Each structure stands twice: as structure tokens, then as C-alpha cells.
Amino acid sequence: MQAFSQVEAVAAPLARANIDTDQIVPALYLQKPRSDNFGHYLFHDVRHDALGQRRPDFVLNAAVYSEARILVAGHNFGCGSSREHAVWALHDGGFRAVIAPSFGDIFHANALKNGLLPVRLPEPVVEELLAALLAAPGTQLRVDLEAQVVTGPQGRTEPFAIDPFARHCLLEGLDEIDYTLTQRARIEEFERHHAPQ
């Protein structure tokens, strides 16, 4: 997993609530192997019309967001089914952080385990961010995991909370298996002292 300390980048506003995992990556693509680039399937069915052409009114189809690395969305982002593929699609699509007032619980857990930082901010703050981003497409934000703050377009900072263990793993670029391996010496010591007699 790639380490995450901070990202400063264009932020894409997705001013919708209750964006579920089926919208993020449709069920049609769930049989693909993880080695595939799930970024190709990100928001596929809402990004394209019935003929497969990109919808000009969908925010991520605008050229100004081609390098967006931060997504700002409405409440309950990532609700619905538990598919980890939704996180893969966002990550492979170039996103390192998603800011929203709330997240689906399973999506939130999957994001932290796959190098995507879900940032919860109060709804009025997110609404202000969305308004600023919609008013000035291409605006950048900074998400700093070490300091646990989001810096907005006017330099205003907003703190956010994160589980300390998840923060440590993201900063170090460790998934759960990697973290377990860092404890190998302690595990081996435990096994020596608790071996069957």
C-alpha cells in the first residue's frame, strides 16, 4: 500500500448525497481481477449515457478534473453493498482522499485498508467547500493526515478525526498483513514462551 501523508490537488465536487457503491462501480465489473485498472469503471453508469458516450454534465468528465485527487461529496457516501471494488475504483481513478459529512461504515473501513483516506467534516463545512469548488472549478484543497487538517481555498483549516491505528498504517503505507509482519519478533517471542509442552 502506498504511504499517505498529505495531498494537495484539485478537488472535484460531487454535490450528491447517498452515493452508493453500485454507482461508484457497477456490479457488472465485480468479476474483474484486482490487477485490472478499476479506475476505468469509476462511476461508469452515471458517467456514460446508454450509447456509452460520456455525459458532459457529469462533473468528473470535465477536463478541469482530469487530475483531481480529492473528491468532496454529500452525506452517506459509499452506502449500500460492501463491495471493496468501490474503493479500488476511486483509488485506481487517482483519488487519494474523499471528504464528506458521513460514509457508509463498510466503505469507510475498506477505504482505510486500501490507502484511500475518508475524511469526515461537519455538513455545513462540506457544503461551504462544495459551494466554493462549484464556483471556481479547478480549486485545490490540501488534506494533511499528519496534522489531521483540511485546508480550504481561502486558507481556512478544518480538523478531522481518524482512528490512531488506521492513521499509523496509512502514514507508513502498511496494510494489515504488513503491520502484522512488523510484529514478527514479538510474535515469535510469544510462540517460544507458549509452545506446547
In words, what does this structure look like?
The structure is a single chain. The protein has 197 residues and is α/β, with parallel strands linked by helices. Helices cover 32% and strands 16% of the residues. The chain is built from 8 helices and 7 strands. Strands 4-3-2-1-5-6-7 form a 7-stranded mixed β-sheet. It is globular, with a radius of gyration of 18 Å. It starts with 5 loop residues before the first strand and ends with a helix.
Q: Which bin fits the share of residues in helices?
A: 25-40%
Distance between the termini: 39 Å
Radius of gyration: 18 Å
Biggest sheet, open or closed, and with what strands and sense?
A: 7 strands, mixed
Strand content: 15-25%
User: Average pLDDT across residues?
Assistant: 92
The best one-word shape is globular
User: What is the β-strand count?
Assistant: 7
Low-confidence stretches: none
Structure class: alpha/beta
Please, how many helices?
Answer: 8
Q: Order of SSEs, N→C? A: EHHEHEHEHEEEHHH
* Major sheet strand order: 4-3-2-1-5-6-7
List keywords for this structure.
seven-stranded mixed β-sheet, alpha/beta, 197 residues
